[in-house]
Amino acid sequence: MNSKDLKILNLFKFDENLLISYSINLLKIIIILILIKIIISIGSSVIQRFFNKQKQSKFGFNEKKADTLSELLKSILRYVMYFIGIMWILEVLGLSIKTVIAVTSVAGVAVGLGAQNFIKDVISGFFILFEDQFAVGDYVEIDGLSGFVETVGLRVTKLRDFSGDLHIIPNGSIVRVTNKSRGNMRALVDITISYEEDIDKAINIIKDVNEKMKKEFKEIIEGPNVLGVTNFSDYGATIRVVAKTEAMKQWGVEMELRKRIKHALDENHIALPIPKRIIMNYKKGETNGN
């Protein structure tokens, strides 16, 4: 075997060793990723079981508070494990911790703005939690976006609106919050009757409906009460009914009130207004009403 053949053989051996080294490192990275995923899954399950027990305990957290803390801790767990995983993988690739820190310091200048936003989101998230501005399950309006809170995470808050759209809002951008789930809510129903009908009779019929509703619905805190005639429109007189209900129960009460009032008015032959149009026939001088 000549010297040229020996050089080729040595090159092949070097490439073979390099390939084995890369394969081992790739296998280690895959194992690290699997371990991280398993730890996150197990940790999330433990957190969920803990807070489920808290919700059932007399001295534990209420349901909304427990769900909020559960989602927050899961979010923190994910971020911590992602960081550990990245550091572990960099070490497998041959980068020492000192090198990683040095590179991170240099890169920190370039991503400083992003890091500032991240820190702002995290700090805002903690303030939202500790000030109890809202919790998972609350119906809120945040800067013009409304929906039920699905997640209060370390960095973002997720809202699900009635159409099913999911709004993801960075915590640091939240300026104004309207929580519609705290305290009693107002149920409001407007009923317009025709001008030809007896308003006093209609009001008495609505009052009877209100009394029955109050007895049957535990979620009604106060009322329903007839405020009186609040408007005269092109079609008729508007009678307003209001009630106070438990949080998030107002819509159901409003729909039931409308249905019952409509049935009661129909039974007593109180007509709701129908839009009318007057057509003038100038040629014949006749008037037709439709």
TrEMBL record:
Domain Mechanosensitive ion channel transmembrane helices 2/3 per the UniProt entry, residue ranges: 76-116
Top-level taxon of the source organism: Bacteria
MF annotations from Gene Ontology: mechanosensitive monoatomic ion channel activity
Domain Mechanosensitive ion channel MscS C-terminal: from-to ranges: 189-271
Mechanosensitive ion channel MscS domain sequence ranges: 118-182
TM annotation in the entry: 20-51, 72-90, 96-115
GO CC annotations on file: plasma membrane
Localization, UniProt: Cell membrane
UniProt xrefs under Pfam families: MS_channel_1st, MS_channel_2nd, MS_channel_3rd
Membrane topology per record: Multi-pass membrane protein
Alphabetical UniProt keywords: Cell membrane, Membrane, Transmembrane, Transmembrane helix
Family listed: Belongs to the MscS (TC 1.A.23) family.
Protein name: Small conductance mechanosensitive channel
